[in-house]
Amino acid sequence: MKLNYKEDWPLYLIVLGVITMIAKEAVEVVLTPSKKMTSETNKNEWHQPSLYLDNELKGADREMVLYGENLIANTSYYFGPHGTIQPITNGMNCQNCHLQAGARAWGNNYDAVFATYPKLRDRSGKLETIASRVNDCFERSLNGKAIDTSSKEMQAIVAYITWLGHTVKKGDKPPGSGITQLPYLNRAADPGKGAVVYAEKCQTCHGNHGEGVAEGSGYGYTYPPLWGDHSYNTGAGLFRISRFAGYIKDNMPFNQASHQSPALTDEEAWDVAAFVNSQPRPVKDISHDWPDISKKPVDHPFGPYADGFSEQEHKYGPFQPIADARKVK
Length: 329
Fold this sequence. Notes:
It is a single chain. The chain is built from 13 helices and four strands. By secondary structure, the protein is mainly alpha-helical. Among the domains are: about 60-165, Cytochrome Bc1 Complex, Chain D, domain 2 (Orthogonal Bundle); about 190-290, Cytochrome c-like domain (Cytochrome Bc1 Complex, Chain D, domain 2, Orthogonal Bundle), CATH 1.10.760.10. The strands form two sheets. It has a two-stranded antiparallel ribbon with strand order 1-2. Strands 3-4 form a two-stranded antiparallel sheet. Helix 8 packs across helix 11 (about 265-275). The longest helix is centred in the first third of the chain and has 36 residues, at about 10-45. It is globular and about 55 Å long. It starts with 8 loop residues before the first helix and ends with a helix.
């Protein structure tokens, strides 16, 4: 039967309406679970407090917090090679590793620091304060010297970190804090494959030789050096590739990736972390770290170890066999 478009237009409308309803139902079935999951994640995720909306922070306390934020964002101006207070670091800013002055979710932020410090750390075997943890970064990630814990600068940094995490309950570590722990690969991370990822996704910003891009002001880096004399040393937390891989996955390429929308696969993140950490960098004496060697993380790249795995395996993996062996014990 041939339909007359002018006379049978109501029939066309009915058919179109049915098709639209079926399509809508199908889309909802497919999308609702992921929407719900994303909604729940965002609901529980830590969100930074706002200095502009905090009307209770006033006077000298507010000035200290603001100064602390400035020190985190512009560390090199105060403590870099040409530092106005002390020339004692490699020239990077704290926020080169702790994004957005330590306030970005999934960006190695400070949100759970106040909630979890003081605490006994296995790496030092000691009870550490926020100030001692900050100096750890000065000596390792900034490859410099510790600053006076009674100084105005340290007090300001501690005040800022404390304020940033003041809404987090003591002992809590909400989603979005620190760095993501990626699932282990079923193979060793591969620096060779990572070199390819670096060339395609990283060297535009960080340079052919990992040298980074210095700020025009002469203080700090727009894109930090990833290896070489001005990068973090072998005692830094990011020299463990599990830490670096998780950081890369959620944040790199910079401002092109996020936890919800990563630009790299897990394998790419592990491999490029392995490549970067296979490059030359300053060496730190860590002979006093991990007094109980059985507490070393599976990816701590320096022996001795309490297990039968080699330094090569502890640096690049595969890590699951190491983790499984520890469970047996």
